[in-house]
Amino acid sequence: MGDTDQELLTRIAAGDQDAMMAFYDRYFGLVAGYCRKLIHDRMQADEVIQDVFWQVWKTACLYDAGRASATVWLMTIARSRAIDRLRRLAKETATVEWDAAGEAVTSSNNVEQAVVARSAQDALYDALDQLPDAQKAMIAAVYIRGQTAEQAARRQQIPVGTAKTRLRLGLEKLRRMVGVDAY
């Protein structure tokens, strides 16, 4: 059996990146589900998820098992980060730009760009959800967590060639699903 949450957090507090990855792997689904349920904009939710795990990395030394379980501590961080993001988003959408004559200004160009970007992002996330788990895990490791294929292979305990194949096949499927021509 693997390390307990307390052991992982102790190792994280000491700067152990492997412990952080194990903690991340253990709790990503829980945190992601919670954040995405609260924040309906997937990109914003994903940024909050990243913020949550960054805060775990920076504050693991403050975790006190006598006060709460690791799950409660983590979800308290997630709740706090999500609420902060929702407040910021509400404030941003309430901001209106005014021209010199005192008229409200909207930029149809910016709105169009935002709609197109959001549509493309949604298509990419939908396509990513349709990939086999092994390919999805490799793409997440390399393009979301910033690992090399070699690091991801080591983490997933698979040969490097297998990792690279999964990554290549996953990217090819994504390109086909979202209609991006391969170079």
Describe this structure in words.
The protein is mostly helical and 183 residues long. The protein folds into two domains: 95 residues, RNA polymerase sigma factor, region 2, helix turn helix motif (Rna Polymerase Sigma Factor, Chain: A, Orthogonal Bundle); 69 residues, Winged helix-like DNA-binding domain superfamily/Winged helix DNA-binding domain (Arc Repressor Mutant, subunit A, Orthogonal Bundle). Helix content is 74%, strand content 2%. The chain has eight helices and two strands, in the order ααααββαααα. The chain has a two-stranded antiparallel sheet with strand order 1-2. Strand 1 and strand 2 form a beta hairpin. Helix 2 packs antiparallel against helix 3, helix 2 crosses helix 4 and helix 6 packs across helix 8. The N and C termini lie far apart (44 Å). The relative contact order is 0.08. The mean pLDDT is 83. One of its GO terms (molecular function) is DNA binding. This is RNA polymerase, sigma-24 subunit, ECF subfamily.
What is the secondary structure topology, with strand pairs?
Layout: H1 5-13, H2 17-38, H3 42-59, H4 70-94, E1 97-98, E2 104-105, H5 108-130, H6 133-144, H7 149-156, H8 160-178
Q: What attributes does this structure have?
A:
183 residues; mainly alpha; Arc Repressor Mutant, subunit A; 2 domains; two-stranded antiparallel ribbon; flat; RNA_pol_sigma70_r4_t2; transcription
Q: Helix/strand-derived class?
A: mainly alpha
**Share of helix, binned:** over 70%
Give the SSE order as H and E letters.
Answer: HHHHEEHHHH
Write out the strand line-up for the largest beta sheet, numbering strands in chain order.
1-2
CATH architecture of the largest domain: Orthogonal Bundle
Shape: flat
CATH class division of the largest domain: Mainly Alpha
- Ranges where pLDDT stays below 50 over 5 or more residues in a row are none
Strand residue percentage: under 5%
| SS field, number of helical segments | 8
What is the name of the CATH topology of the largest domain?
A: Rna Polymerase Sigma Factor, Chain: A
Tell me the domain tally. 2
Mean pLDDT: 83
Total beta-strand segments: 2
Give the distance, in angstroms, between the N- and C-terminal Cα atoms: 44 Å
Largest sheet descriptor = 2 strands, antiparallel
Radius of gyration: 20 Å
How would you name the CATH homologous superfamily of the largest domain? RNA polymerase sigma factor, region 2, helix turn helix motif
Pfam families: Sigma70_r2, Sigma70_r4_2
Organism: Sulfobacillus acidophilus (strain ATCC 700253 / DSM 10332 / NAL)
GO molecular function, one term: sigma factor activity
Keywords: Sigma factor, Transcription, Transcription regulation
